[in-house]
Amino acid sequence: MNIDTRLFYAVNDFARDTPWLHPVVSGYASYGVVLFAGLLLGGWWIARHDNDRGRMVAAAWAPLGMLCALAINQPVASAVDETRPCRALHDIVVLHCGNDAGFPSDHAVMAGAITAGLWLVHRQLGVLSAVAALAMAGARVYVGAHYPGDVIAGLLLGAAISVAGYLLVRPLLRWLLARADRSPLRILFRPGAQSTLEESRT
Questions:
Q1: Fewer CB within 10 A of the terminal residue: the chain, N end or C end?
Q2: Could you tell me where this protein is found in the cell (predicted)?
């Protein structure tokens, strides 16, 4: 038995001993993505309120980086084609089980990418997202959907793709935001832009 499986059994034994936690952890494992959507919105709001072009570039990239990370993860997971523990192991607690390959975890990739993106926007928000990401990774193991290695790899892969993509597309995003700043879309990126737009029409 490898260490990944041993760690999974340790977490699963904890799940067996804590049935009162099942609804909370299972709910977060399935619907915690809503929290990350809120964090992305918070990153945009902070960047807009600060009227900081660099932060806004990072805030614009954060959701795009997540989508890129998930798109890249799909062929990787298909190529590895790892059977999830909920389908490979017997006599374990299973609260959720998907039909697709388990390595790397899509949920962890999403969480890692968003955390890296938000870290570029605002350090404190990045720390909050990191806590949420670790909780998501732990929850996915707790419910029986993934091995620990699946979620660790997912977090690292998501973060790496997000940071690398940001470095590549940052000049393009700066240019696009500069163009948007001269259009009605600027109300999405600058506080007070609405009043400026109205004044220009009078």
A1: C
A2: Cell membrane
Question: For 146-172, how does the pLDDT look when each residue is reduced to its tens digit (9 = 90+)?
Answer: 999 999 999 999 999 999 999 999 999
CB half-sphere exposure, 13, CA atoms < 13 A: 6
What is the Cα–Cα distance from 157 to 113, expressed in whole angstroms?
A: 8
Cβ-contact 32, 136 below 8 angstroms: yes
Whether this model's pTM surpasses 0.85: yes
Return all residues near 58 (Cβ < 8 A) that are at least 6 apart.
43, 47, 117, 120, 121, 166
Q: Is 142 exposed, middle or buried (0-12, 13-18, 19+ CB in 10 A)?
A: buried
Distance, in Å, from the CA atom of 185 to the CA atom of 188, rounded to the nearest integer, reads 6
Decide: 122 and 55 in contact? Cβ < 8 Å.
yes
CA distances from 11 to 64, 77, 126, 153 (A): 33, 23, 26, 17
Q: Which of 99, 110, 35 is nearest to 67 (CA)?
A: 110
Q: How many CA atoms lie within 13 A of 188 on its CB side?
A: 15
Quote helix, strand, coil % in the chain, to nearest 5: 80, 0, 20
